[in-house]
Specification:
Shape: globular
Structural class: alpha/beta
Largest sheet: 7 strands, mixed
Strand content: 15-25%
Helix content: 25-40%
Number of strands: 22
Radius of gyration: 23 Å
Oligomer: single chain
């Protein structure tokens, strides 16, 4: 990132005053309980805001607001081209408020300001724009029945949808839900993570400013066991879109069953294998991609390439190059535009990751790089890039999602062994295969049980392709036109013409 003429982010941070209330029916207010929680920046440990701790009654109010707007048809029955124009204005406002949103994201969850500016805000706006442009491109169907009847298949909005999103990419994950939810004509109640709630509140205000009717987009910040649970149990919520841990995803499925059997879509955890076959010659390229696949965003990515599954003949060369790339990623001040690796989201997550590093040592893996907290004097939450060698598939660091900058290296000899290692997991979100043999690439891509398989790259991304996984990585897909399937119902209308 070009740091010349860059804003003084520390000066802006000193003046930072975010919105902190619940956002219901187009206005901010305190939680009905009056309770708040501290929003602590992982950059230096300071409290940057006291945020309304929404609870059951706030969720009730938000759902009622969304239901009233849906029944009035303020949004649901608006012509597709009109919804399109509102969402396009929303995307434009996100871009116009780029610096404010990027600063909020960085202060709230610790990622480098360069990433917030170059990745998070543009990706969020592009997602909303893409779904806006899709609104009037989706056609209903006429079924191929006999001449004596006419059967119409129409796609209709679910109604009121709850969206529960994680803390690692607060804006992007919200946009992946909001885009298809709003484009389809639903109302939404968004529950952001208590670890990073601030950009969700800013986004809702901008959406109403763009012309979204009050009540269509509501935000209830709060804790998962209170606000999140209340939303998933609510009998007036027609669907839940969730991104987060597999453990929480299981709870949400249970809440849906206990209440009204609402539609549930889940994008959960991952323990993704990044496989380098013995024939792959560009070791530098594969290793650099492997480093960014686990260290980008401090490793706080569900699709992170956390298992480095490498042919034994290439292991030493690959790890040497990964170490070289890691040396460029020393954790630094997230408000410095030159910083490439920021802070963990909070002290709890930092301690969790350090606990996994200790477990790796205790289980007999060799710590090849890193493994320690750094910049402790800042008051923030920083862990250096960490690489383990000699990892066995039975070890915790090879089986459990760490959600931090920790790479577990596992070696193999044959293609069959590599596939077995890749599939030896309860997850199935992403995977990668590095090979020069097209037949090998096809065979392995078909054999690996994952929702996304990258060949000779990692984490390649476009809004036009679905994102989601197999097994305990969830069900349903974010992104692409397939996301509309989660937030719409198909209706058959049969007309007898006899």
């Amino acid at each position: 990132m070009n740091t010349q003429n860059s804003p003084d982010w520390h000066a802006r941070a000193a003046q930072f005053q975010p919105r902190t209330g619940v956002y219901i029916d187009g206005r901010f207010r305190d939680a009905l309980s009056g309770e708040t929680f501290d929003c602590i920046s992982p950059i230096d440990g300071r409290v940057i805001a006291k945020v309304a701790a929404g609870g059951d009654r706030d969720v009730d109010a938000a759902v009622a607001s969304g239901r009233a707007a849906f029944e009035r048809g303020d949004w649901a029955r608006r012509a597709p081209r009109e919804r399109k124009q509102v969402l396009l204005r929303f995307a434009d406002l996100l871009r116009a408020h780029r610096d404010e949103l990027a600063l909020t994201e960085t202060l709230d969850m610790g990622k480098p300001i360069a990433d917030s500016l170059a990745v998070d805000v543009p990706s969020t706006a592009n997602c909303i724009q893409w779904y806006a442009e899709a609104v009037d491109k989706i056609y209903d169907e006429v079924a191929p029945t006999g001449h004596a009847s006419l059967a119409l298949v129409t796609r209709e909005p679910l109604g009121v949808v709850g969206a529960i999103v994680p803390w690692n990419f607060p804006m992007i994950m919200a946009a992946w839900k909001l885009g298809p939810i709003l484009a389809a004509g639903n109302s939404v109640v968004l529950k952001p993570s208590e670890k990073s709630p601030l950009t969700a509140l800013a986004m809702a205000q901008l959406a109403v400013e763009a012309g979204l009717p009050p009540g269509v987009f509501n935000v209830v910040p709060g804790f998962g066991h209170t606000a999140g649970k209340a939303l998933a149990l609510h009998k007036e919520v027609d669907g839940i879109g969730f991104t987060g841990s597999t453990a929480t995803g299981k709870l949400i499925m249970g809440y849906a069953a206990q209440s009204n059997l609402k539609r549930v879509s889940l994008e959960c955890g991952g323990k993704s294998p990044n496989i380098v076959m013995g024939d792959y010659r560009d070791v530098q390229r594969a290793a650099r991609a492997a480093a960014y696949a686990i260290f980008f965003n401090q490793g706080e990515m569900c699709s992170a390439g956390s298992r480095f599954v490498v042919h034994e003949s290439l292991k030493d060369a690959l790890l040497e190059e990964v170490a070289r790339v890691a040396s460029e990623l020393t954790p630094g001040d997230p408000l410095d535009p030159a910083t490439r690796l920021g802070a963990m989201v909070d002290a709890q997550q930092m301690q969790r990751v350090l606990g996994y590093i200790d477990a790796g040592r205790q289980d007999g893996a060799r710590l090849a790089l890193g493994g320690s907290q750094v910049r402790a004097e800042s008051g923030g939450c920083y862990i250096e890039p960490t690489v383990f060698d000699g990892v066995r598939t039975s070890m915790r660091i090879a089986r459990e999602e760490i959600f931090g900058p920790v790479l577990a290296t596992i070696t193999f000899r044959t293609e069959a062994e590599a596939i077995a290692i890749a599939n030896d997991t309860s997850y199935g979100l992403a995977a990668a295969v590095w090979t020069h043999d097209l037949n090998t690439a096809h065979r392995m891509a078909r054999a690996i049980r994952a929702g996304m398989v990258y060949v000779n790259c990692y984490d390649a991304d476009d809004i036009t392709v679905p994102f989601g996984g197999f097994r305990q990585s969830g069900m349903g897909r974010d992104k692409s036109l397939h996301a509309f399937d989660k937030f719409t119902e198909l209706k058959t209308t049969w007309i007898d013409l006899a």
